[in-house]
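Worked example 2:
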Amino acid sequence: MLTWVMYDIVKDKARNKVAKACQKAGIYRVQYSVWLGDINKTKVKELRTIIEDLIDLSVDRVYIFPMCREDFHSCVLLGQAFDPKLVTDEVKALLL
């Protein structure tokens, strides 16, 4: 399923570890703190567990949103919605 992960994490070390966990899970960075990819429910649960262990639940914010392809294709992207330096061919393929 298509999954968005978005975060606002205070400490650099935790933020970097969360970014590495997202990359390892097989999702792709589309903005500095926004990731998107097609991963199964088991991977989403694993990623959630890893992130929960890395962040400070009292101050950090992480959003994990599953999204069906139909809804994704009805999204409206305005301006420079994705950072072109970060978007990979895999993410571009999701947009088609």
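The beta strands are 2-8, 28-31, 34-38, 61-67. The longest helix spans residues 12-25.
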